């Protein structure tokens, strides 16, 4: 008689399987941005004109020197860009792809952005903001309102107000009337604000910013490019501090 043996999975095999799956996830997130190199080489991305549903906590920094992706060409360094802050000559630039209906973006803006602003004040970092609007119409309306506020030199104040206490606003608070009321609360010229928010120029800029993100393969928010290297997700503040510190140190030689 032949006996059929039944053996359970060796206990040492489980960590290996879990580790392998984690590497696959990281690799997929990394290649979300990696395709942008092909776009650059074929001329598909015009960074002079161009400016997902939820953010995860995934570090897509290259895993080795051979895998390194340089996305520094995405930095515009434009003195006339109303959505940017920091010297155009800062040694390090951070491009942020965000959405005003993304709770992870709200968390990052509330907890990490103030720390990044310290680097801006020290002339070590330039931040360039790009709205991706993956959540749809409400997000796009909010991004147009933020751009209209930027044209009155109040982008960051309006941006912070769209994320009160690190939370997203209800959809009802992103109607045209609510956004104009918010502008009034910040002391803006509401007539000019309304005109700008509805203008073709602002719509073109918002569309260009969205196109930049999608051409890079950034389909989730928040996504970042720090000193040319992609990162995805509202990771702990220390992760961004370490990345900027390292980039500043490298730039200073």
CATH architecture: 3-Layer(aba) Sandwich
Gap from first CA to last CA? 75 Å
> What value does the Rg take, in angstroms?
21 Å
For this structure, what is the CATH homologous superfamily? Glutaredoxin
Helix percentage range: 40-55%
Query: Low-confidence segments, ≥5 residues, pLDDT <50?
Result: 1-32, 34-66
CATH class group? Alpha Beta
Beta-strand portion reads 5-15%
The order of strands across the largest sheet is 1-3-2-4-5
Which descriptor suits the 3D outline? globular
Work out the oligomeric state of the chains in this entry. single chain
| Biggest sheet overview | 5 strands, mixed
Helix and strand element order: HHEEHHEHHHHHEEH
- What's the domain count? 1
Here the CATH topology equals Glutaredoxin
Pfam family, one: Thioredoxin_4
Keywords: Disulfide bond, Membrane, Oxidoreductase, Redox-active center, Signal, Transmembrane, Transmembrane helix
Protein name: Thioredoxin domain-containing protein
Organism: Yaniella flava
Describe this protein's structure:
Belongs to the thioredoxin family. DsbA subfamily. Pfam families: Thioredoxin_4. Residues 41-83 are annotated as: Disordered. It comes from Yaniella flava. Residues 42-51 have a biased composition (Polar residues). The chain has ten helices and five strands; from the N terminus they run ααββααβαααααββα. By secondary structure, the protein is α+β, with helices and mostly antiparallel strands. The protein has one domain (13-251): Glutaredoxin. Strands 1-3-2-4-5 form a five-stranded mixed beta sheet. Helix 5 packs across helix 8. The chain is globular. The model is unreliable at 1-32 and 34-66 (pLDDT under 50).
């Amino acid at each position: 008689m032949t006996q059929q043996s039944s053996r359970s999975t060796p206990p040492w095999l489980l960590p290996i399987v879990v580790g392998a799956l984690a590497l696959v996830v990281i690799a997929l997130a990394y290649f979300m941005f990696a395709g942008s190199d092909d776009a650059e080489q074929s001329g598909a991305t015009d960074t002079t004109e161009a400016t997902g549903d939820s953010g995860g906590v995934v570090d897509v920094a290259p895993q080795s020197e051979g895998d390194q992706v340089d996305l520094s060409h995405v930095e515009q360094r434009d003195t006339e860009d109303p959505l940017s802050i920091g010297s155009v000559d800062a040694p390090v630039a951070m491009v942020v792809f965000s959405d005003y209906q993304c709770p992870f973006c709200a968390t990052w803006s509330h907890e990490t952005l103030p720390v990044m602003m310290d680097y801006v004040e020290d002339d070590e970092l330039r931040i360039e903001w790009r709205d991706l609007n993956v959540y749809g119409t409400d997000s796009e309306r909010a991004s147009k309102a933020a751009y209209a506020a930027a044209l009155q030199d109040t982008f960051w104040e309006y941006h912070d107000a769209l994320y009160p206490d690190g939370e997203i606003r209800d959809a009802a608070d992103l109607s045209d009337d609510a956004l104009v009321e918010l502008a009034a609360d910040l002391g803006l010229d509401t007539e000019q604000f309304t005109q700008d928010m509805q203008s073709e120029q602002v719509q073109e800029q918002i569309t260009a910013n969205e196109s930049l993100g999608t051409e890079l393969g950034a389909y989730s928010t928040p996504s970042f490019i720090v000193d040319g290297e992609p990162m995805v997700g509202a990771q702990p503040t220390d992760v961004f501090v370490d990345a900027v510190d390292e980039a500043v140190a490298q730039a200073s030689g």
